[in-house]
Amino acid sequence: MVNDERLAFPEDFTWGTATASFQVEGAAYEDGRGDSIWDVYCRQPGRIADGSNGDVACDQYHRYPEDIALMKQMGVGAYRLSVAWPRIVPQAGGAINQAGLDHYRRVLDMLLENGIKPVVTLYHWDLPQYLQEAGGWANRDTAQRYADYAAVLAKALGDRVQTWTTLNEPWCSAYLGYGNGGHAPGICDYGQALAAVHHLNLAHGLGAQAIRAELGDRARISVTLNLQVNRADSDDPADLAAKTRADLFANEVWLGPMLAGTYDQRIHDAAEGLTDWSFVRDGDLEQIHQPLDVLGINYYSTNHVGGRSGAGSERNPMPAQDMVETLPPQGPLTAMGWNQEPQGLTDLLMEVSGRFPKLDLMITENGSAWEDQVSLDSSFPGGKGVHDPQRVAYLEEHLRAVARAIHAGARVTGYFAWSLLDNFEWALGYTKRFGLIRVDYDTQERIWKDSGLRYAQIIHDRAV
Ligand code: PNW
């Protein structure tokens, strides 16, 4: 691959940045917001690496005008944000909190005034705590409560939002939330994790229908999946079988029901002994299988798996992985310990578009964490900034990977860099920085990084 080839993007390509409510908003006790499962999880000793929480985060709840101005300077045409469900329906019983809706109306209005299209995720992991007390995603009723919430948002915000994303990474909600407990609500029970998978699928389908019922064809409906690229250690049948098993539970449990209306029989067979699947009721798959206007894909790295040892790795978040060994990542690693393999993104896009040739795709997250340092440097706006050559290289290489897939025929309509800002990185607290713009958590100052400036240039050139 020639490194100096210049790759261009289509004229109507969407350039965006992404964040999520719990990771940036703060204002956890304002305007009638209720507790989410992440507020409660953060209060449990030992759960969050630096003992932190989302009470203040990046204070975007108050500072959104400044953040929108930064995006405008960056030249982005779209912002992927999520709505905090506990701001909208804070308490059991379902009463709507008008102050929560008003907040998002103001944010959306300012985005639109600045020519930035909102792409709104309804659920990026901040489940109202009262729903957890009733069983959370292991309880079927949560899917119905989600559909009610989706209808409220569509009605209240539908004049301002075209593209809606039902769920962000249900893989994390089900498997980190219920499989190994690394995310809220912190449960380790593979049977519950499989029930959560199904109820998240059901929530997607019921939510999509609720939005459609309210807004008809004015709405573009999507879901965001963190599809895994599992690389088998070798062509040995045991390694290939391990890859297949990981693919089934990572990817096929969502793609099958949502896009084809079925659970692959091999998923049922592999999960024998963990669940009797009685949570899958007649008619559910028709409810889940709804027309999708665009599929969101989050991509960070690849996974390396093997099956020759015959022993599964401990605390695999996914059920039925007893013969899947997680092997050390290969190649250069980011501060997350994730490997960098831009080719994996091209491969994934080609595979998904080969299987669903008519479906539009968008990259709803891609980015990298590094040990950033602030330098005094008058060439930055504000006289100081972060030189982050590794994040710049990651950004360029992954955008080139996207461009190659487009040139090979994949229907990729947009790219959202994760993230606009450094933010609360879940169980890792504030110890990992993904932003194109740095946040000084003492002063809430926003500080440009080279990567943010480079992204602005790429957007301007429409080429990398
Ligand atoms: C995604 N894993 O999270 C999320 O959508 C973002 O909110 C998050 O900040 C970003 O990626 C970076 O981590 C993930 O352990 C968190 O496999 C953990 C995993 C995957 C995705």
From TrEMBL:
It catalyses: Hydrolysis of terminal, non-reducing beta-D-glucosyl residues with release of beta-D-glucose. GO terms for molecular function: beta-glucosidase activity. GO terms for cellular component: cytosol. It comes from the Bacteria. Keywords: Carbohydrate metabolism, Cellulose degradation, Glycosidase, Hydrolase, Polysaccharide degradation. The keyword Ribonucleoprotein does not apply. InterPro entries: GH, GH_1_N_CS, Glyco_hydro_1, Glyco_hydro_1_beta-glucosidase. Substrate binds at residues 23, 124, 168, 300, 418, 425-426. The active site is at 169 (proton donor), 365 (nucleophile). One of its GO terms (biological process) is cellulose catabolic process. Belongs to the glycosyl hydrolase 1 family. This is Beta-glucosidase. It comes from Bifidobacterium apousia.
